[in-house]
Design a protein that fits this description.
An 8-stranded mixed beta sheet has the order 1-2-3-4-5-6-8-7, with helices on one face. It has one domain: 3-Layer(aba) Sandwich (Aminopeptidase), CATH 3.40.630. It is α+β, with helices and mostly antiparallel strands. It contains 5 helices and 8 strands; from the N terminus they run ββαααβββαβαββ. Helix content is about 30%, strand content about 25%. α1 runs antiparallel to α2 and α1 runs antiparallel to α3. The N terminus is likely disordered. The protein is globular, with a radius of gyration of 16 Å.
């Protein structure tokens, strides 16, 4: 198996490695899942991509990171479970990240999605905390927002665990908005 791609930012948490989407990774995810897994040095779960992601969202990712190299890191990231046992294979078990570079007022929007078999194990809050920390490591970022639907209770629990506070209606129809300030 090839060495994992090391083109963009990476973050490590207690149980995960987060890898920023790059043009090479996004192109492979869209066109060659076997190559995608090889580039990340992981196994793909039987169901990929995770909920609320599809071919259109992968194309959006590719367009974003190809449009400007500075967008790498400000787009999606891949969440790799880093099993503690020796010889165990990493698995890509979710994704999330940002919807673009910080706005003029220093706001970025974060999102997250975990493959169903990996849900309810604390991975979404762990990844979200890492992403928020990365965003706040950039001086221009003053606020991180997240949208969810009111019926997505698990998503709201993630935001609560990550110290986001409810602020009102979201940007998209039916969504509600949460924020975390620097």
């Amino acid at each position: 198996m090839a060495q994992p791609v090391d083109e963009g930012p990476r973050l490590s948490t207690a149980r995960m490695i987060l890898v920023a989407a790059t043009p090479v990774l996004a192109r492979a995810e869209l066109h060659d899942r076997e190559r995608f897994a090889e580039l990340l040095g992981v196994e793909l779960p039987p169901v990929w991509p995770p909920p609320l992601n599809d071919e259109d969202s992968i194309r959006w990712t590719l367009d974003l990171v190809e449009a400007d190299p500075a967008n790498v890191g400000w787009g999606p990231w891949y969440f790799l479970a880093n099993p503690p046992g020796k010889g165990l294979k990493r698995v890509v078990m979710g994704n999330g990240g940002f919807k673009g570079q910080p706005t003029a007022d220093g706001t970025v929007e974060v999102g997250y999605s975990i493959v169903e078999t990996w849900q309810r194990q604390g991975y979404a809050p762990e990844a979200t905390e890492a992403l928020v920390g990365w965003a706040f490591s950039h001086a221009e970022v003053r606020r991180v927002v997240a949208q969810t639907l009111p019926e997505l209770r698990a998503s709201m629990r993630v935001l609560d665990k990550c110290a986001f506070r409810f602020v009102g209606p979201g940007f998209e129809e039916g969504a509600i908005l949460f924020e975390r300030l620097r």
